[in-house]
Each structure stands twice: as C-alpha cells, then as structure tokens.
C-alpha cells in the first residue's frame, strides 16, 4: 500500500462519506489530522501513522478486514443472491464499505465457521487446492457410523462423480443405532473442499448427514461465544496464525 493517500479517499473507503460530503465536513471544520484542523479534504495523509478525527471521533483505518462468522442455516455463502439472504446481509453496516466476501462456501443448510474478508490474496491462498488447509466438521449422521467407515475415510473414498478424496480423519463421538432411531455424532477433518464434500463422503459409505457444522479452518476454531449469525473480527494472533498456515501447508 502507498504510504500516503488522499484524506477523502481514505475516509470514503471506511464509509464516512462521499468525496463531496467530506469536502463539506472539512469546510465545517469537522476533520482534524494530528490535532490540526483540515482545510483541504484532498490533502495527503498516511493512514497508518496520522491520527484522523471526524466530529471528534478517531477513524480506524485499515485496508483489509477479516471476520469470523458463525453461519446459521438458511443463508447462502455469497455476496448477493436473488432469492436468499446472504452471509454478507448479516454483517453490521460498518463493514459495508470494505466489500468482504466469504472465503469458500458452506451449504445453505450448514452452520458454523465462515471466514469473510476483502483480502483476495489470502482468500486465494486458503482456497488453493495445493495448500491442503484442514477443515473440521461436526456432523450428525443417520444412523450407525462404524470403524470401517473410519478406515475407509482414512484411505480416501470415491465420490459419486468418481473423484477420489484425499484421506480424511474421522472421529466417532457417538455411534448411533438405527433400531432406536439414534443418530451418530462425528468429527471429520478434510484437507480439501469439493462441493458438498462431507455429505458426499458419507453418501459414499451409504450414510446420510442430517446436520453439519464447520468447527475449524486451518488454525482457527469457531469462537463459542459467537451466536448463530454473529461475526467478529479476527484477533491479531488469529490473523497471523492464518497467514502462517497457508505458507506452511504447501505441498
Ligand atoms: N461439506 C458439505 O457437504 N457441505 C458443506 O457445507 C461443507 C462441507
């Protein structure tokens, strides 16, 4: 990023106003840079080091935002949709100017961890099939999930279109019993993200997923304090871990 940029461009980027509104705000004396009243809203400033205040409030500038969402069922992992509400519709308005998008997709009926960002490079790296970023899901499965399913997944299974998956790690938390209508509960970690992959892996062993929730992606685990539909920004540590994950998982 360039070190200095036009003040009005920076403020417009974080949603404070259009260029003409910012010109007016400057004229009204509402904008300060490093404690000095701004006359020209087109002045050059360094958003990383200069302290910008509008109407007395400090402006937090950043180029990229990174959000962790607990996606609910019934919304689609997209930025726009003609029929359904999207994950972006659920975000607070303060994020609108950043134009974030979901990194990868969860099905409409899948819940859980979804990363949203406007950092195209990071998204590309995390989604690259070469990077094998692990994703862990919790699922309820009809009915009994067995050791032989665990063994099959550990070898990789053949999906309905003939695709051979990479090995997946299946942890059986509870093995349900069809005779009394009990579902199994499992965790499955996969290193790729084919369309409907978890559901189709179970289909490959003759079983049906009835509930699916992603609980982690790479080094990040879904924050248990996030209610369904809520999102929060990643902490510095989480972001660093994520950036590091895709550089070390190459292979
Ligand atoms: N696998 C699925 O089947 N669905 C998802 O949403 C994610 C992984």
Per CATH, which architecture of the largest domain? Answer: 2-Layer Sandwich
What is the 3D form?
A: elongated
Strand content: 25-35%
**Helix/strand structural class:** alpha+beta
Query: Can you summarize the main beta sheet?
Result: 9 strands, mixed
In angstroms, what is the radius of gyration?
Answer: 23 Å
- At the fourth CATH level, what is the homologous superfamily of the largest domain? Pseudouridine synthase I, catalytic domain, N-terminal subdomain
Poorly predicted parts: none
Secondary structure layout:
Layout (H helix, E strand, L loop, with lengths): L4 E2 H7 L5 H9 L3 E3 L2 E2 L6 E2 L6 E3 L2 E2 L7 E6 L29 E2 L7 E8 L2 H8 L7 E8 L4 H9 L13 E6 L9 E7 L6 H8 L3 E10 L2 E2 L9 E3 L2 H13 L3
Parallel strand pairs: 9-13
Antiparallel strand pairs: 1-4, 2-3, 2-5, 5-6, 7-9, 7-15, 8-9, 10-12, 10-13, 11-12, 13-14
Bound molecules: uracil.
GO molecular function: RNA binding; rRNA pseudouridine synthase activity
GO cellular component, one term: cytosol
Protein name: Pseudouridine synthase
Write structural notes for this entry.
This protein has 251 residues and is of the alpha+beta class. The protein has three domains: 5-58, Structural Genomics Hypothetical 15.5 Kd Protein In mrcA-pckA Intergenic Region, Chain A; 66-129 and 220-250, Pseudouridine synthase I, catalytic domain, N-terminal subdomain (Alpha-Beta Plaits), CATH 3.30.70; 135-217, Alpha-Beta Plaits. 22% of the residues lie in helices and 26% in strands. The chain contains six helices and 15 strands. The chain has helices at 7-13, 19-27, 120-127, 147-155, 197-204, 236-248, and strands at residues 5-6, 31-33, 36-37, 44-45, 52-54, 57-58, 66-71, 101-102, 110-117, 135-142, 169-174, 184-190, 208-217, 220-221, 231-233. Strands 7, 8, 9, 10, 11, 12, 13, 14 and 15 form a nine-stranded mixed beta sheet that branches. The protein is elongated and about 75 Å long. It starts with a strand and ends with a helix. The mean pLDDT is 93. Bound molecules: uracil. Residues 106-107, 110, 196-199, 212 line the site of uracil (URA).
